[in-house]
Design brief:
The protein is mainly α. The protein is 73% helix and 2% strand. It contains 11 helices and 3 strands. It starts with 17 loop residues before the first strand and ends with a helix. InterPro entries: C_nuclsd_transpt, CNT_N_dom, Gate_dom.
Length: 322
């Protein structure tokens, strides 16, 4: 035996069968050798912590239900007080009245709405309706679209419609300011160079290219031309900036305001933001939250662009991990 005990395994690395005695001593059943280790606590020496752990394991389901009921009750009580405070404030409000969705009571409503809608979807709607919806709607629709776009002419027609609509929009938008087309010329130049430098240009899959540019264009319209979309992304940007500014507060606490806020030394001001965001992402990875977000984004990219699972997940992960 190596003399090293790993209680997580019943076999040692050399293949010898190991068993546990009640005393906690490891015994080699082939040659009878034994090694004294930290013995397991007997019934008479069990601590309060051990007994509490057994009690929690015994009533695990009941404790979980009680915790969820208590948590939701506290959320409802807090939301009730927040609603009462908001209504009282609105009665005496003279300027800046109305619901502010990016802060205060409006943000609270949005957060609780997203959380509870997500819980209803993942715990009620998805388990009950996922299979019927997938078999009766998704599969027939994907089969119909796949059969339709299996023809080369259908693909060319769809690309032609997209290009014509894009050209009409660009003409209407830039007829008085043609210099705005400079960025479009640059993007077209990159595509042409990529096509020329490709080793197998006939094997290029144009679905990710066309749909990727199309969705970027639609996202730009949503963020710039639609006031609601612009407000949403401005709010998200403000919240992210506020969150990252917490790193400046921490750096100022450690290094002082002079080199962080006044002088803005790179090693103390900029790197602190990078470290702070990296630590935050690492914590989310440890908790499993970032894996869930990356997989969902990867699934969306795979469904829209037709890319492989690995490509989609890696592209989604690069958004957060760089």
């Amino acid at each position: 035996m190596s003399g090293i005990q790993n209680e997580a395994f019943d076999h040692e690395g050399n293949g010898l069968q190991l068993t546990h005695r009640k005393s906690g001593t490891i015994v080699n059943t082939e040659n009878g050798d034994s090694a004294d280790t930290a013995s397991l606590p007997s019934n008479s020496k069990r601590t309060v912590y051990d007994k509490l752990g057994d009690l929690v394991d015994k009533y695990k389901a009941q404790i979980r239900i009680a915790w969820l009921v208590t948590l939701n009750a506290l959320v409802i009580i807090f939301f009730g007080f927040a609603t009462n405070h908001y209504l009282e404030k609105e009665e005496t409000c003279s300027t800046g009245c109305g619901m502010q969705w990016c802060s205060g009571y409006g943000m609270l409503v949005l957060l609780l709405g997203f959380v509870y809608l997500g819980l209803v979807y993942f715990h009620i709607v998805k388990p009950l309706l996922r299979k019927p919806f997938k078999s009766n709607v998704v599969k027939p629709l994907s089969r119909t679209l796949g059969n339709f776009f299996s023809s080369l002419w259908a693909k060319l027609g769809a690309c032609g419609v997209i290009l014509v609509a894009f050209a009409i929009f660009c003409f209407i938008e830039t007829k008085d300011e043609p210099e705005r087309l400079m960025s479009l010329v640059g993007m077209a130049t990159l595509f042409i160079l990529a096509f020329i430098c490709s080793k197998h240009p006939t094997r290029i899959n144009y679905r990710p290219v066309v749909l990727g540019v199309t969705f970027q264009f639609l996202l730009g319209l949503f963020c710039i031309r639609w006031e609601v979309g612009r407000s949403i992304f401005e709010c998200i940007g403000d919240k992210v900036a506020t969150f990252l500014n917490y790193s400046a507060d921490g750096a100022s606490f450690v290094y002082g305001d002079f080199i962080v806020r006044q002088e803005g030394v790179f090693a103390f001001a900029v790197l602190s933001v990078i470290y702070f965001f990296s630590f935050f992402i690492s914590i989310l990875y440890y908790l499993g939250a970032m894996q869930w977000v990356v997989l969902k984004l990867g699934w969306i990219l795979q469904a829209l662009l037709g890319t492989t699972v690995c490509e989609s997940v890696i592209a989604a992960a690069n958004i957060f991990s760089g």
